[in-house]
Amino acid sequence: MTKSSEFVNIISIEINTKITKEDKMEKVVFLTGATGFVGGNIVIRLLDDPTVSRILLLVRGKSQSNTEERLYNNLQEINSTKILPNSTVKIEIIQGDVTLPNLGLTDELYENLAKRVTHIIHSAANVSFTQTLEEARRVNYLGTENLLKFAQLAKLLNGLQQLGYIGTAYVSGNRKGIIFEDELVKPSAFANPYEQSKFETEKLVRSYFKDLPITIFKPSIIIGDSETGITTTFNVLYYPLKLIYKGYLHAIPGSRRNNIDVVPVDYVVNAICHILFHATEVVGKVYHLTSGTDAAITAGEIIDLTLEYFNETKVSNIAKTIFIPAIFYNASKRFYSGTLKKLVKNLEVYLPYLLVKRMFDNSNTQNALRGSGIKPPNFKEYYRTVLGYCLIVNWGKHIKVAA
């Protein structure tokens, strides 16, 4: 018997159509995006929450067994010690798809789920920076629109208590300066179709504030767990750091003084769960899950700390990486060839996050988390853990081979 089979055997595959006494008393959470990085970490967090009686996971898959396999592999990758047979008894896996009417479910199952749900966390998203706008809208906008319809039914049939929507702080696009939580101002340009689709989606979600108990969460750049370094994605900040480690990147466009807003996934997940389940007066509010001013760090500091760590772990030292004006960087690219040319081209989708000078206000978040002990740690406090994990798994290569 495979590990995934053992996992499947101890969870409820069939959806219980009865509203149990336990479900009435405690939280029944409907979660999308459980096979993603943030969604998977939320599942791990909910397993430890004694007030959550059921975790209903909508997972896309070619078949029920494929759906279960995808979920199991992701949760194992995030925390192999937590995902044990006796720890997952409150999980129910539902094969479905947010992009389809009724979430891809039969009318009967769709209604039965709506009768049970007390809380919804919508984490499903297409986060690729290279997708077309049409592709981004299909999951991010249409998927959210379908989820909101389900939430309306859940409110009607079971008095839905809360819906947490996970967006992104980067709906701000190329806007500079201080970006406030409660505002949604369309920028003159977006860095990629992902940002634009999430801007359009947040506008849609806000339009339901009067009808549904919605709370919006907007993280910045999410990296690995601050205590373990574990991540399942190696993009955005990771890609340029990988090129530096491999000796390919010696010059970066932008300024050393620009803030890079980075938060570890454990902070993001803990903040979401605390605000949704334990804070008060959070409905209709927007929360930046960002480093803010207290844990702010500059691009120059990140590069310096990274070089320091890498040079302690490599046999030969890595050459110093400098910052140069974007105009000079763009002019120098014509001299690149071969592997370097390809790598630098791949890097370009992440460069806007290094070039825009901005700061994300997180006043709402600070107020909601006051007294909880949850706060964004400074990159300086955990960067060795995060970078160390990258080296252990060879920037994700070992994970992919194992999977």
Helix content: 40-55%
Low-confidence stretches: 8-24, 399-403
Mind telling me the CATH class of the domain at 3-227 and 261-296 and 358-377? Answer: Alpha Beta
- Provide mean pLDDT, rounded: 90
Largest sheet descriptor = 7 strands, parallel
Spatial extent as radius of gyration? 21 Å
Q: What kind of oligomer do you see?
A: single chain
Shape: globular
User: How many DSSP E strands?
Assistant: 13
Query: What fraction of the residues are assigned to beta strands by DSSP?
Result: 5-15%
How many helical elements?
Answer: 16
> What's the CATH topology name of the domain at 3-227 and 261-296 and 358-377?
Rossmann fold
Looking at CATH, the homologous superfamily of the domain at 3-227 and 261-296 and 358-377 is NAD(P)-binding Rossmann-like Domain
Q: Give the N-to-C terminal Cα separation.
A: 17 Å
Order of helices and strands: HHEHEHEHEHEEHEEHEEHEHEHHHEHHH
Describe the structure.
With 403 residues, the protein is α/β, with parallel strands linked by helices. The chain has a domain at 3-227 and 261-296 and 358-377: NAD(P)-binding Rossmann-like Domain (Rossmann fold), CATH 3.40.50.720. It contains 16 helices and 13 strands. It has helices spanning 3-9, 21-25, 37-47, 64-78, 107-116, 133-158, 193-206, 238-245, 265-277, 299-313, 326-332, 338-347, 352-355, 363-369, 379-392, 397-402, and strands spanning 27-32, 52-59, 91-95, 119-122, 162-166, 177-179, 214-219, 221-223, 251-253, 262-264, 286-289, 322-324, 358-360. A seven-stranded parallel beta sheet has the order 3-2-1-4-5-7-11, sandwiched between helices. The protein has a two-stranded parallel sheet with strand order 6-13. Strands 8-10 form a two-stranded parallel ribbon. β4 (119-122), α6 (133-158) and β5 form a beta-alpha-beta unit.
